[in-house]
From TrEMBL:
It holds the Pfam family ATP-synt_A. Key component of the proton channel; it plays a direct role in the translocation of protons across the membrane. One of its GO terms (biological process) is proton motive force-driven plasma membrane ATP synthesis. This is ATP synthase subunit a. The gene is atpB.
Length: 282
């Protein structure tokens, strides 16, 4: 942690430091697309590669006989995703079902990084001698709004792609100007505005929902970590504080496993729903 020599951080400094991304430059405005959060990029790509490797291993070791635990778990996951995609998307699912499976596994792995001890990344960075280079580091990509909105924008692009592919350029443009109020020239502008707002609302809500839940979970872990480190902030060492830290941390981690999986499932389902809506004619 980049604090002055001999100065122990107070709780506010501790939390602010852990919520700071390793960015390519200092952000001075609310929106700046020139800035890259390197930690978000690194862990997003790493979890994507890990997810692909896990699924590749499952496919490579698949047998027609009695499956092992790993194969059975992956088969149950694939069957669940296939059933959901079949009930939501009325069309060719050769790409959409694997996409939904990838989204679930990828988001679940990124969310699971929140279960690691909050001070572990900075400790490891210090052990390998990179503390002076990597002064800030956030390990959970989905607790960064840039990461979740990036996924949401990707879903938006797929929604527009399938809208053009299924309905054609003319059909899609006709739908923009005639749904939901009907084909009347006085209603063309309200229809267009409502459809544009709907696309924007879907994208923003998709990214904000995942970000909000994971950011809140990360913040709770930081607050719990303060219970175990109160002696670092000027208070006397307390067995009660340490025990409270362990109990609260364990309880929240167990509960957070549900949040991690639930948010991945919701992201997958909404991806299917939004792409499925692009297949429907209005």
């Amino acid at each position: 942690m980049s604090v002055e020599a001999g100065h122990a951080p107070n709780p506010s400094e501790y939390i602010s430091h852990h919520l700071q991304n390793l960015a390519s430059s200092t952000q001075t405005s609310i929106v700046d697309f020139s800035i890259i959060n390197w930690d978000t990029m690194f862990w997003s790509i790493a979890m994507g590669v890990l997810g692909c490797f896990v699924l590749w291993m499952a496919a490579r070791k698949a047998t027609s006989g009695v499956p092992g635990r790993f194969q059975a778990a992956v088969e149950m996951l694939v069957e669940m995703v296939e059933d959901q995609s079949k009930s939501i998307v009325h069309g060719n699912r050769a790409f959409i079902a694997p996409l939904a499976l990838t989204v679930f596994v990828w988001v679940a792995l990124m969310n699971s990084l929140d279960l690691l001890p909050v001070d572990l990344p900075s400790k490891v960075i210090g052990w390998v001698g990179l503390g002076s280079i990597i002064t800030y580091h956030r390990i959970v990509p989905t607790a960064d709004l840039n990461g979740t909105l990036g996924i949401a924008v990707g879903v938006l692009i797929l929604m527009l792609f399938y809208s053009f592919k299924i309905k054609g350029a003319g059909g899609f443009m006709h739908e923009l100007f005639t749904a939901p109020f009907g084909n009347h020239f006085l209603l063309w502008i309200p229809n267009l505005l409502l459809n544009l707002i709907e696309f924007c609302a879907k994208t923003v809500s998709l990214g904000m929902r995942l970000f909000g839940n994971m950011y809140a979970g990360e913040l709770v872990f930081l607050l719990i970590a303060l219970l175990g480190g109160i002696w670092s902030f000027g208070a006397d060492a307390s067995v009660l504080g340490f025990v409270g830290h362990v109990i609260a941390g364990t309880a929240w981690a167990i509960f957070h496993i549900l949040i991690v999986l639930l948010q991945a499932f919701i992201m997958m389902m909404l991806t299917l729903v939004y792409i499925g809506q692009a297949h429907d004619h209005h």
